[in-house]
Design brief:
One of its GO terms (cellular component) is membrane. This protein is α/β, with parallel strands linked by helices. It has seven helices and twelve strands. The strands form two sheets. Strands 1, 2, 3, 4, 6, 8, 9, 11 and 12 form a nine-stranded mixed β-sheet that branches. Strands 5-10-7 form a three-stranded mixed β-sheet.
Amino acid sequence: MGKLEQKFVFMANGHYKPKLCIPYQKVAIILVVYKNPESEKQFQIFINNMLPKLRRQQLEFGIYAVRQQTSDIPNRGLLFNIGFQKAMTHMKYDCVIFHDVDVIPEDDRNYYACEYYPRHMAKRIDRNNYKLPHKDWAGGIISMNPEQYTIINGWSNMYIGNHTENEDIYRRIVTHYDLVRTEDKYSYCGSTSNKTELPNKEGCWSFEKTGRTWQIDGLNTTSYEKAEILNQKLFTLVDIGVISQKNQERLHESNTKYNQLRQSSECNSDVKQHGVRAVTWKKT
């Protein structure tokens, strides 16, 4: 990172504020990075490409990289929730953007700010052949304000080592709000990974679970035993140690409550759904 620090002298303590204008919003950008060479390289590419892009948009922003210190299979939802908690203790942000480290927007007009509704900003990613994997997917880049994030109870803490959380966050959002997507011609994104997103194979089970347990699984059940905050020049690193026993117990409690609900009902949502589309999921 040494050369990048010399290159981007306008950054300080992972934060940038324009000097010649009043920024439209204060934006926190939260990423999950892993302790492996591939992820570290992707993060450097992200920093090299995104810092000048964000500066051109004249935003006040902070970048938070959340990293799990242990070699356990990562839990992205939990790490995003922790990143949100830590970012909000640093500053009163108007907007929070949850970002895959290997996704880079190709057009500056994909504006890094929050709108009236939560917004999916990465509809067309090259690793997915510039197509949305399926209509219930909200991965890559997604923005919402802190109040909206709190109301949907953040990301689920239940998914470990897969990308089902991208369908889960979609369902949490459309349970409460309309979800908008960046206009097609501005939503093209490159990727430093060639791993194609596949449709969620858990299907109905995953969506029903979200509709019934979002209140008891998410931001309000996020806990951990150790967090080290390292203020770098270009970003703030949030190093997370062991996931706490308390959090494990809450995950078990959430699963137990869901299984009880599942035994007593069919796979039909009993919550109000908004756009992008509203569906009723049935068992197959």
